[in-house]
Amino acid sequence: MSVKIVTDSNCGYTVEQAEKLGIEIQPTPILVNGEQYFQEENLPIEKFYEYLTSDDAKVSTSQPNPYDVAERWRRILKDYDEILYMPLSSGLSETALVIKHMAETEPEFIGKVYALDNHRVSITQKQAVVDAMNMIKEGKSAKEIYDWLTKTAHTSSIYIAVSTLKYLKKGGRLTPAAAAIGTLLKIKPVLQIQGERLDKYAQVRKMSDAKATMIAAVKNDLETRFANERKAGKMTVCVAHTQCLDEALEFKEEIIKAFPDVEFTFLDPLSLSVAVHIGPGALAVACVIKY
């Protein structure tokens, strides 16, 4: 059985990289003052951050048009037996559930398209794509890959240190009063994604403290929740950022030093769907299972 992977632009692969790997990217729409843009097509990342940091632009994410998704599936199924569709977590967007419903109820797609919701985004989503590609090489079917990725969906954590409260306030995740107090006190929140929403994890004053907090959080996960997977050599660590590559490179070295027995995999920009809510200057670390 031939299997084609389709993921979305939240996973961190560019369209060019995806083409070389033999996978496809379904672009995630970005809305700027109500006008729709697509990363790489008509919205370079630098331009995205120009809009995001401007007080005159309202930036948000949107869902891919199900019609466009279905048309892509129809085209692919002319050459492939099955499709594994891998969007970002349903905890961050309804896309996964909408597309999953389409795959499971439309007769032309039933048994041919497996729309996954394994609660991943950015670097953890990218690891899931790598796992899927490795399983395809072993001859596994889309259903077998879907089952493993669903079973291991919550074997991952992401911790994110935010440099400013501005974007959490703009997105309604902080009240203006709380944001004002936090800014006055120079608070830097550490957020977490445990497969679902972007939630508060801790509050610190300095980025150095935030990095120490995130390393301690990953250490706890690897020693408790994911201890068996770590012992089996099945855990990885990775770093992500929003427009602060130099700091991310330094953080990578700290992560490698903190977890010398765990494979380091990716250093990537955080997905735009996350960046909308946290702004530039954020650092993130993740631990995630590998196949």
TrEMBL record:
<dbReference type="GO" id="GO:0008289">
    <property type="term" value="F:lipid binding"/>
</dbReference>
<dbReference type="Pfam" id="PF02645">
    <property type="entry name" value="DegV"/>
</dbReference>
<protein>
    <submittedName>
        <fullName>DegV family protein</fullName>
    </submittedName>
</protein>
<dbReference type="InterPro" id="IPR050270">
    <property type="entry name" value="DegV_domain_contain"/>
</dbReference>
<dbReference type="InterPro" id="IPR003797">
    <property type="entry name" value="DegV"/>
</dbReference>
<keyword id="KW-0446">Lipid-binding</keyword>
<dbReference type="InterPro" id="IPR043168">
    <property type="entry name" value="DegV_C"/>
</dbReference>
